[in-house]
Amino acid sequence: MTQSFAVETKALVKRYRSVLALAGLDLAIEPGCFFGLLGPNGAGKTTAVSILCTLLRPTSGEARIFGSDVVDERPAVRPHLGIVFQDPSLDTELTGRENLEIHARLYRLSERGTRIERMLEQMALTRDADRRVAALSSGMRRRLEIARALLHEPRVLFLDEPTVGLDVHARRSLWERLEQLRGSGLTLFLTTHAMDEAARLCDRVAILNEGRVVATGAPQELCQQVGGDHIELELDRPEEALPLLRTKPNVQDAWIEKRTVMVKVKHAPTELVALIEELKPQGIRAVRMREVNLEDAFVHFTGHKIDTAGNLE
Amino acid sequence: MTAFVSDVMTILRRELLRYGRERAFLLAQVLLPVLAVLLIGLPAGKLGQDLHYASYLGAGILMLTITSGAIGGGYTLIEDVQRGFLRSILVAPISRTSIVVGKILARLLLSLLLVITVGTVLAFFTDIGLAHPLLSLGALVAITFGFVALGILLATSLRRTESFRTVAVFVTLPLYLLSGMFFPIETFPRVTYLLALLNPLTYGVDLFRYGTIGVHELPLVADGLVLLAFAVLMTALAARAFERRLAG
């Protein structure tokens, strides 16, 4: 393996008794990349993060952070890691500042005071730094965890489902903070089941299905691979439209979803006029069109739809 | 080595910050022993020629403070596992031993502080003093190690930690009653006397009492050996249980 990758795994397998959580994971992430590991709940995302963070031993295969093995060279790996776990891991009895202070000491940092103030400011927490964590909102706690994870200037920041349980406003504010870290040289390893989050933050994503990567690339690349735009038609008699649509050469696919006819075409703006003309007899009530997005790509590569809670539909 | 010491100090600092937040609880830990000695010990009069029951009970109750505090201290480690906080420490570049040592040291310091505070108050109306300070300290250290370890063992073996308090009482109450904390074990019936001899806490209470008021019931060498073996064995068992818990 070369030194050049921030995170690299080869044929990584983790088996819990009868359950195969990772079935040969291969990843290669360049330094500075904002990377997203996408998958439904139970796909193995947290298992992958736990192994990469030196907390869990893989059953087989290898994993390296900047060239150091996460099993055999833990002391070399750990100082490079910044981690925000899926479940909160702050000391809720202490204040935000005290949490950062303890963390700074665990990493034996110099100039602790200055660093802490800077991080508090960066995560917009200065005003609430001396309140007990138990009294903070979940959005503030998440930002505090990120502040803590960044305090020792790690080279890789792991965020495991960082916006689960946050309201819309807190999510957006978190994304904005993360966006500011781009270009600082920091590598971001994000796991999420929220496709909008991945599309917004990630330079590259890998789609995980049943413990294996089924697709990888930039979000736009994956969308292009899936290809085509979607036209959605609300018709009086949708079932009559399907056979008709399927005979058309420019229609790649057509199906009905919640009484709406979904049509996949190569280029929606040019096909739209022809389609409307064609389907007038079926009684058109509304027409929408949209470009293919990461969610479509996810469905395409995994064969599953995912709901907002991250479960397979 | 210096890194290890600094890691231990960091964990210690965090523990002390937390203990500092529990002022009401600390106050209760000072008041209860004093009240017990005042209300039960003093009216009971003399136990022997020169021995007031208040002094005897006072030394025993100081040991009770140490023991129950230590079990609670062990429990906080498992609490850290459950609340997720421990993960944030485990990924830091520090050794796992330093976490456990830091926890035990924090508890030792707190127990020492409590014993000194309560002991000073009790010294005004009992014979509690520093007959053999090093032996008292030895008993305090051994019992703290042993019972922090017991707390960890109990907490790791329970699936539901809400039941910790119930189980802890169930396990510790017999240990307390059969330890000579409250009454001399010589006055016990034969069977209970034998049970008391099987109880490691008996030796801790005996040594501590000798250290504070100069009175003991058992050979001091036996006290020392049993306490040493107890502390070492329990710490080893707890370390193993904790490692397993982390792995699982």
Walk me through this protein's architecture.
- The complex is a heterodimer of chains A (313) and B (248).
- Chain A is an alpha/beta fold and 313 residues long.
- Chain A folds into 2 domains: 7-223, 3-Layer(aba) Sandwich (Rossmann fold), CATH 3.40.50; 228-291, 2-Layer Sandwich (Alpha-Beta Plaits), CATH 3.30.70.920.
- Helix content of chain A is 33%, strand content 28%.
- In chain A, a hairpin with a 2-residue loop joins strand 9 and strand 10.
- The mean pLDDT of chain A is 89.
- Chain B has one domain (2-247).
- The mean pLDDT of chain B is 91.
- Chain B has 248 residues and is mainly alpha-helical.
- Chain B is built from 10 helices and no strands.
- Chain A binds chain B through residues 53-55, 75, 78-79, 81, 83, 85, 87-94, 98, 102-103, 105-108, 148, and chain B through 3, 6-7, 9-10, 13-14, 17-18, 21, 83-94.
Which terms would index this structure?
A: 313 residues; alpha/beta; Rossmann fold; 2 domains; four-stranded antiparallel sheet; 33% helix; 28% strand; B: 248 residues
Brief summary:
The complex is a heterodimer of chains A (313) and B (248). Chain A is α/β, with parallel strands linked by helices and 313 residues long.
Count of separate structural domains of chain A: 2
Q: What about the largest sheet of chain B?
A: none
Total beta strands of chain B? 0
Low-pLDDT residue spans of chain A: none
User: What number of structural domains do the residues of chain B give?
Assistant: 1
Tell me the strand percentage band of chain A: 25-35%
Distance between the amino and carboxyl termini of chain B: 29 Å
Briefly note the CATH topology name of the largest domain in chain A.
Rossmann fold
**Helix/strand order of chain A:** EEEHEEHEHHHEHEHEEHEHEEHEH
Tell me the radius of gyration of chain B: 18 Å
Structural class designation of chain A: alpha/beta
- Work out the largest interface and the residue count of each chain: A-B, 25 and 22 residues
How would you state the average pLDDT of chain A, rounded?
89
Count of DSSP H/I helices of chain A: 11
Q: Counting H and I runs of at least 4 residues, what is the number of helices of chain B?
A: 10
Q: Looking at this structure, what is the CATH superfamily of the largest domain in chain A?
A: P-loop containing nucleotide triphosphate hydrolases
Taking the sheet with the most strands of chain A, its summary is:
6 strands, mixed
Give the CA-CA distance, first to last residue of chain A.
39 Å
